[in-house]
Amino acid sequence: MKTKLVCAAMACALTTITMPNTVWAHGLEGDRFFPPTPLTDDPFAVDELSLPAIQYNPASASNEIDITGSFSKEIFPKFAVSIQDTYVNLNPKGGPAEDGFGNLGFNAKYQLWEVPEHEFILSIGSDFTLGGTGSKGIQTSSIPYQYYTTYTPNLYLGKGFNELPDSLKYLRPLAITTVTGYDLYANAAQSNALEWSGSLQYSIPYLQEHVEDVGIPRPFRDMIPLVEFQMTTPTNKNAVPTTGTIDPGVLWEGKYCQVSAEVSVPINSQSGPAVGGLIQVQVFIDDLFPKIFGHPIFGSDDNDSTSGK
Amino acid sequence: MRTLLTVLFTLASISLAQAHAFLDHAEPKVGTTVASPSLVKVFMTEELEAAFSKLQVFDAKGTEVDRKDVQISDATMTVSVPSLPPGKYKVAWSAVAVDTHHTTGTFTFTVQ
Lengths: 309, 112
Description:
Helix content of chain A is 9%, strand content 45%. Chain A is mainly β.
């Protein structure tokens, strides 16, 4: 399974790298394209297909591999819902291997405030993880099976650095995205937690297309180096300290998909014993199937229409 | 899973669909300093719908200085400009690809 999915990701990269041009899909605010990143949900309520995201932590006690798929669909203009699940493979040292699907997750998101000239977007939304819908075989000593449902109201932010002065023009390709959420568990015994993640991106395509054509050739001109972080801070008394990872990596933007690779560095011993990694393939379904995807089911989205522009 | 991936990648490889049109490169080049050009050209990544795409050039005061004679051919937009005095100029493009996806963008060049 693992080998097949890695091969599929490679096939996607090879398929798109042989195409003559590279363009992007959705997630646009002014001149800025905010790509979907592996750990920080982007602030856009649009059609997206992540298939798959593979996360590997080789030195964890359970030697865990997670393979996540998610699909997002814009229902009304600027409002989208998504569904997500993760296939978990555990290979603990000295113990039997286990695998199965995790609890089913849903998300609803709305683009609340956009200022294209400032490359700014603010969105609100919520995650819902349905307790008891996953396989019981994949619980670990550190991550017990969750019979209870989790609600996580989220605030999403995206901002480009386009307003920097000419003396700092080579920093204009920088952008940040953040997601701040609060886990509310249906189980009162469980500690609630603040979830905070973000990305700092340097877009080489933005440099080439909007700041200065410095002649960077493909495939490098289609890359976005970035650093992400993903943290969890329990808020109840006597809870464990903040855990999380810092994840440097790079995105490569193809015509119909994006491939991301990041290294996951735990911030403390409670976050994991060693460095892991993740790979994600994001399919731009609105470009693959423009008659089906890329616009809301109800109403009209000005961003993808010839009308009103 | 494998069947779904195979279908997706096969469809991608035979290029049934178009994609969003973005800037590939331009003349004058993005962010460069040049002598006054007679034409401004943008080379996009996708074929354009001429009826819905446009190209404009503005001076530092925001006044449009091009001759409003945009020519669109396949993925290229061209507009002529009079002799431009030294200064910074902004190029604004609005592109609708043949699959109707709409994109916009800006960049500047400087006339010495």
